[in-house]
Design goal:
The structure is a single chain. By secondary structure, this protein is mainly alpha-helical. It has a single domain, classed as Cytochrome p450. The strands form four sheets. It has a three-stranded antiparallel beta sheet with strand order 1-9-6. A two-stranded antiparallel ribbon has the order 2-5. A hairpin with a 5-residue loop joins strand 3 and strand 4. Helix 2 packs parallel to helix 13, helix 6 packs across helix 9 and helix 10 crosses helix 13. The chain is globular, with a radius of gyration of 22 Å.
């Protein structure tokens, strides 16, 4: 039902939003680097940028969250943190205990903020549909950018029934939570890996400069995304080395026989390690080495050896959205800034809901002459 939300014709107009959100972030960076360079936590910077993009793509709403505090954004960040804390405290797994704790009360308050915001957007949009009539509202959308709420309002099941307001709100919130942290993680780690390997960073930058040469404005367009082969290779190798989601779960629909003869019974829920697959030395020689040329078009890979977005019929529905955003943001960032390791801030991987870094992922950001 939701596949049309990620059709290429729906995704194309989002490139303008990715450009706008990147420009806001980079304007902040320029202010912070007036002295020449500044050390910034990439997770903090990029999470706000992806949340800004998603609010515009999902709700057509601009909270200016990159420039001033937002209760809605603060609630999303807090909920993500509280979920991880709850996982690590066994007694908090029981609702009757959890909601008596300080964390549980904070969780309820943050949930109320998120649910109220989403419900208000959905109800106001539904009111417009009812006032205009569904057919007239649909005609008014032809040729215009449609956000995720619009797509959900159009979605029908196999019986021709539209989604309820509660279903629409649940899907919109799932996309907000599933889409911002993962993309921010992917972008943070690719900038980190390019800071570790300045020769690859320079190669990406040269590719982007050649792509945009002669243009009046620095803007990534949809057609550009397929003309960034080396930058795409660098993103993919970073997703292999530092996958944003480290595990996935599946329920066995039949008995699964393993090579050693053991059988996983039908109905069993299994956790599969994406990180483990991506670091398996029998599949990826020297798995800890960052080598973008693993993803050269002439290089073959084993099936299911690279699964940053999962695989099969239940893979990540938003993977094209995420890759488009990562390519656009990376291109504009390297066009305008050089990133270097902050050697005073050691980097250690920290798998939570997503792949993070302990104490943040700090890089020196230095403005280039181009784009100033």
């Amino acid at each position: 039902m939701l596949t049309p939300a990620f059709h290429v014709d729906v995704l194309k107009p989002y490139l303008k939003i990715f450009n706008q959100s990147s420009n806001i972030m980079h304007a902040k960076w320029r202010k912070l680097t007036t002295g020449g360079a500044a050390s910034l936590d990439m997770f903090e910077q990029l999470s706000l940028m992806t949340l800004d993009s998603l609010q515009k793509c999902v709700f057509s709403y601009n909270s200016n969250c990159q420039e001033r505090p937002s209760d809605y954004i603060s609630a999303i960040v807090e909920l993500s943190s509280l979920v991880v804390r709850r996982q690590n405290r066994l007694l908090h797994h029981f609702d009757c205990i959890y909601y008596l704790t300080a964390d549980g009360r904070r969780f309820r308050r943050a949930c109320d903020i998120v649910h109220s915001f989403t419900a208000d957007v959905v109800q106001r949009r539904q009111a417009v549909v009812r006032q205009m009539g569904h057919d007239a509202w649909l005609r008014s959308k032809l040729g215009k950018t449609m956000d995720f709420i619009d797509i959900l309002l159009l979605a029908k099941d196999e019986k021709g029934q539209y989604l309820s307001d509660e279903d629409i709100a649940a899907e919109a919130e799932t996309f907000m939570f599933g889409g911002h942290d993962t993309t921010a993680s992917g972008l943070s780690w690719v900038l980190y890996n390019l800071a570790r390997h300045p020769e690859y960073q320079d190669q990406c930058r040269e590719e982007i400069q050649n792509l945009l040469q002669g243009r009046e404005t620095e803007e990534i367009e949809w057609e550009d995304l397929s003309k960034m082969p080396f930058s795409t290779m660098c993103i993919k190798e970073s997703l292999r080395l530092h996958p944003p989601a480290t595990v996935l779960s599946r329920r066995c629909t039949e008995d699964v026989k393993l090579p050693d003869g053991k059988v996983i019974p039908k109905g069993t829920i299994c956790l599969l390690s994406i990180f483990g697959i991506h670091h398996n030395p029998t599949v990826w020689p020297e798995p800890e080495v960052y080598d973008p040329y693993r993803f050269d078009s002439g290089t073959s890979q084993l099936p299911l050896s690279f699964v940053p977005f999962s695989a099969g019929p239940r893979n990540c529905i938003g993977q094209n959205f995420a890759m488009a955003e990562m390519k656009a943001v990376l291109a504009l960032t390297l066009l305008r800034f050089r990133v270097r390791l902050d050697k005073s801030q050691p980097v250690r991987r920290k798998p939570e809901l997503i792949m993070r870094a302990e104490n943040g992922l700090w890089l020196w950001v230095e403005p280039l002459h181009a784009g100033l």
